[in-house]
Amino acid sequence: MPVEAVQGELERRIVTVLFCDLAGFTSLSEQLDAEDVAIVQEAYFDAVRHAVGRHGGALEKFIGDAAVAVFGVPNAGEQDAERGVRCALSVVGAIEQLAARLELDGTTLHVRVGVNTGEAVVHPAPAPGDAMVTGDVVNTAARLQAAAPLNGVLLGPETALAVAHIVELDQAVEFELKGKAEPVRAACAGVLLPEPERERAMGALAAPTIGRAEELSLIALALDECAAGPTRRLTVIAPPGTGKSRLLDEVAALASARGTAVRRARVRPDALSAFRPVGELVESALASTGLNGDDEVRGALAEALGIERSVVVADELLALLGGFEDGVAQEEAEARRSARFAAWSTGLAALAATEVWLVEDLHWSGKDYRAFLASATEGEGRLVVCTSRPSLLETDDEWISGGEILELEPLSSESTAELVRALVGDALSSELVSRIAERSEGNPLFVEELLRSWVGSGLLEQSPSGWRLRRTVDEVELPSTVQSVYAAQLDDLPDSARSVIRRASVAGRRFPRDVLGVLGADETEGVTALQRRGLVHGPFVDDLLGESFVIRHALLRDVGYASLSRAERARLHV
Predict the structure, then answer these.
(1) What is the pTM of this model?
(2) DSSP string for 461-493
């Protein structure tokens, strides 16, 4: 008998919880008329609502002057912790502005904010006033808020780990929080960094690129051929954390060493304009050439293209920097769009004889942007290297068939072990290194985030003589930062495919076809969608299991299983 899905069943998720409360409001209320108190309070509520909404959170409730918001529901995002911290800093800024606008004494209206990341049980359809999430992560966020300084944001350990690349953090300190059996390491958030800095997050953990010699050789050959021949387009496809960005860093260094101009852009899921990455390519070009201001740009283009031709090209390039309106591009005729694409490509080419375009996260892009990149590969002297997750394999057959595809495989066990030793030397036993290599299945992000979490918790520490492990490691757990990335990938799947991963996970990474119907998953539609994305292989004939499939990435299976509530696991295992 098939196991029926329970409508509105509970899920376990990694979420980020924000807890904020006004400080000194009781004292302020004594000094103001009741009507003025209501005005101040409503202005505070509005500021919180606006900040939470702008950063994609879910406002759970107000409790007196306190507010609770959750990031990661109903769908997980890779940047839930980051959005929670950005929201917290926005709330602090809004309260400071509110105090100034209302002409209040700056010492009388403050806010304290706590942000914490961890596993929670998510209630799919809570009644009005009921909690969306339940778990210690919520209680700890409240305790962090109480311990935060005035107009400060105090981050729990998992949150601090997740945002170290985008915000300045004070030194982590152990706090004795009410109701917590053990001290909690927490850090205050400072100002946001202008650009993400992975090196800052890694701290003293550093290693060269390992296990990618073959891929780099292929790209180096393509670079040589493009220098004196037609443009080539190469798309590197791999799941999260496999090392796509690191590979592009190596390509950039290789190209720069040969005197080839490098242009970089990243596609962001929350970008206001589909063509913002084109603007980033232009900004990258201007930064490398040292051109400042419209006049210098127009002058350089006029010298390269001639005055008459350069006018249109310069207008189009500078329009990108001034904020391009997508609506115009979507409504214009095909000929007009082609002319615009040609102007962008021509302008970039005019600033360098040979160039490499490095575009990250192409899976977030729309077809218009990919159409521009395709048009830009019709000339000579340019190598376009993009990175994408496997979802692009399903969504754009034209892009896949129109260029070269390089599928980046996980690191071998030997390369993974080499990476661990490069990061922490001989601090870990051979047995523990082997366990990490096996658990990570060649995912470099897993290795880096695991070791970073050990450093953050004090388990792994650096001394003048090198790294050392302070106590025995019983289990190599999935880091929450990695779990968040794969949870977002899971939530990005169609419902039928998501159901297959979650329910088939109880059978392990390899699951028989027959089990899907029993578990209540939509076999045909779900498996087909997963196969198109390269997330499931098969069917294979197994002597024991019969016709079966394999979830390609163990981490995706692990996250699918982790999302099942205890009750649902028990029901599916029966």
Answers:
(1) 0.85
(2) EEETTEEEE-S-----PPPHHHHHHHHHHHHTS
